[in-house]
Design goal:
This protein is an alpha/beta fold and 232 residues long. The protein has one domain: Vaccinia Virus protein VP39 (Rossmann fold, 3-Layer(aba) Sandwich), CATH 3.40.50.150. Helices cover 41% and strands 22% of the residues. It is built from 10 helices and 7 strands. Helix 4 links the parallel strand 2 and strand 3. The chain is globular, with a radius of gyration of 17 Å. The N and C termini lie far apart (42 Å).
Length: 232
């Protein structure tokens, strides 16, 4: 199975992970609004919700199947546009008030160039929200199969944002139990974390509790990183 097909299968398998989806939207939502740019919409899992947060939405997705599914999910909504392609294919004259990348930046070879490009598309003071997998030590065969080029540490992601024209508002680790689960399942046992209903079980029985706890206590490490930054 090639990388695009592997990603499509994983995304389809995660469709039922609604607690995880709602958690990400809770974290990202307060920072998004106005003219929203979604970079890498996948199958459009988040796209209708992102549209509801702002006045309009442009969703870009390079995979033809994902772009088609995103277009289908947004078909009944006004002020939306789906671009089948990468960021460079979005009209360069358009300016946005906020941009979001959810589990996308880790797939891109030139992450620095991508953030700089997003910065050029944002209006002054516009907000960027990025959610990425954390800690290079967790990078395993499964990551590589689904096209992950890297995983991030907080210091490195913060520096990258600052170097590409952003002021960092927040950068935090999230999902501490997910770190431990990923280490065991992906790195030690070399299993696929989305196989056999594992992701669904984690979503159903763990995510709600983790979400509630991490509202009050920021973990010192986690499976993922949330970055919020403002364009200078």
């Amino acid at each position: 199975m090639d990388v695009d097909a592997e990603i499509e299968a994983v995304l389809a398998g995660l469709e039922g992970a609604t607690h995880y989806r709602d958690w990400l939207l809770e974290l990202a939502g307060p920072y998004l609004g106005g003219r929203v740019l979604e970079v890498g919409s996948g199958r459009g899992t988040y796209s209708p919700f992102l549209r509801a947060l702002g006045d309009s939405l442009v969703a870009g997705e390079p995979a033809a199947g994902g772009a088609a599914e995103t277009r289908r999910r947004l078909a009944d909504l006004a002020d939306v546009e789906v671009v089948e392609g990468v960021l460079a294919d979005v009209d360069p004259t358009r300016r946005f008030d906020s941009a979001v990348m959810l589990n996308v930046l880790e797939h891109i070879d030139d992450d620095r160039g991508t953030l700089a490009d997003i910065r050029s598309r944002l209006a002054p003071g516009g907000t960027l929200v990025v959610w990425v997998p954390a800690f290079p030590a967790l990078l395993g065969d499964f990551d590589r199969r689904i096209g992950h080029v890297r995983r991030y540490r907080r210091r490195g992601l913060t520096a990258l944002a600052r170097e590409t024209g952003f002021d960092v508002v927040d950068c935090r680790y999230a999902n501490l139990p997910g770190f431990l689960a990923w280490w065991l399942i992906v790195r030690v046992l070399r299993l696929t974390p989305t196989a056999g209903g594992l992701a669904g079980l984690y979503d159903r029985w763990v995510v709600g509790a983790v979400r509630a706890i991490e509202r009050r206590v920021r973990p010192p490490f986690g499976q993922s990183l949330l970055l919020v930054a403002k364009a200078r």
